[in-house]
UniProtKB/TrEMBL annotation:
PROSITE patterns: HTH_LYSR (PS50931)
CDD domains, A to Z: PBP2_LysR_opines_like (cd08415)
InterPro entries: LysR_HTH_N, LysR_subst-bd, NocR_PBP2, WH-like_DNA-bd_sf, WH_DNA-bd_sf
A Pfam family it matches: HTH_1
Protein family: Belongs to the LysR transcriptional regulatory family.
Gene Ontology BP terms: lysine biosynthetic process via diaminopimelate; positive regulation of gene expression
MF (Gene Ontology): DNA-binding transcription factor activity; sequence-specific DNA binding
Keywords attached to this entry: DNA-binding, Transcription, Transcription regulation
Protein name (Swiss-Prot/TrEMBL): LysR substrate-binding domain-containing protein
Length: 300
């Protein structure tokens, strides 16, 4: 039986007459009778007994009706599921992001998105930027966030926000009165440095070397958030990205711009070799809106 035959049989079984079944289906009474006869021929056994213009279901029809009802319940479930997918009431995202973002500002963004779409769920995978790009290209992620430019085929790159480096100081530091800090200000200052592979650290060291300044690194920290905590412990000044600095303002740190400006793009990665889901499109739009509408916070 095809779907149309099931629909006709179901209408006849649930209606009080062929006339009512025809009205429900939007076709004529003779058309229903003709289709019903064709179903019986296809099945090879009668479904109804004709008694005085009334159809009486056979035991076979009663048994078949139970299965047809089960099938229509499945179709209704599929219809609701498809409607939920369209309305983002169903769906799952797998997002890859660097450790620093995942341990800092990103959870707040993810929570804001999921509050808007309570039917969705999300897996957050933390890895370095290169691994994010490679995992996305391999199909293990739906989308990714990276802080630095990474070479990887099969990914589309979109800059969400240029994120500049800022200086983080403890309250009462002798440089706290300066509105902007530069390389010369860091001469002989103890520094809390990020990992040697960090792009901000590399660019800072290049600026210092250009002025014959040898950095006085007191502590290496794996994450910018750890650097902010070490600054508050009196271990020195740190140069970190502005997003992490703002996320750690509650520690009591002071934030000052750094000149010359050192900025790296926060980049959204999506796959080029496969289509993205509606949920991925919506989350990407949420990220764009978040970073477009968030005014640059005042540094103080």
């Amino acid at each position: 039986m095809n779907l149309r035959q099931c629909e006709i049989f179901r209408a006849v079984m649930t209606a009080s007459s062929i006339t009512e079944a025809a009205d429900r289906l939007g076709i004529t009474q003779p058309a229903v009778s003709k289709m019903l006869a064709q179903i019986e021929r296809d099945l090879g056994f009668p479904l109804f007994l004709r008694e005085r213009r009334r159809l009486v279901p056979t035991p076979e029809a009663q048994a078949l009706f139970k299965e047809v009802e089960r099938a229509f319940l499945g179709l209704e479930h599929l219809t609701r599921f498809a409607r939920d997918l369209k309305g983002l009431r169903q769906g799952h995202l797998v997002l890859g992001a660097p450790y620093a973002a995942a341990a800092g500002w990103l959870p707040g963004v993810v929570a804001g998105f999921l509050r808007q779409h309570p039917g969705l769920s999300l897996s957050l995978r933390t890895m370095n930027s290169l691994s994010v790009a490679q995992s996305l290209a391999a199909g293990h992620l739906d989308l990714g966030l990276v802080q630095f430019e990474v070479p990887a085929p099969g990914v589309r790159r979109e800059c969400l926000l240029p994120v500049e480096a800022v200086c983080v100081l403890p309250p009462g530091h002798r440089l706290a009165s300066r509105p902007v800090l530069g390389p010369v200000d860091l001469r002989d200052e103890p520094l809390v440095a990020l990992a040697a592979a960090d792009r901000y650290r590399q660019r800072l060291e290049a600026e210092l070397a250009a002025r014959d300044i040898v950095p006085r690194i007191r502590v290496d920290a794996p994450l910018a958030s750890a650097a902010c905590a070490l600054v508050m412990e009196g271990m020195g000044i740190a140069l970190v990205d502005r997003l992490t600095a703002e996320d750690n303002r509650h520690r009591g740190i002071l934030i000052r711009p750094f000149a010359p400006r050192l900025a790296e793009d926060l980049t959204l990665l999506t796959p080029t070799r496969r289509p993205v889901s509606l949920a991925v499109e919506r989350f990407a739009g949420f990220l764009r809106e978040h970073f477009r509408c968030a005014a640059a916070p005042a540094l103080a």
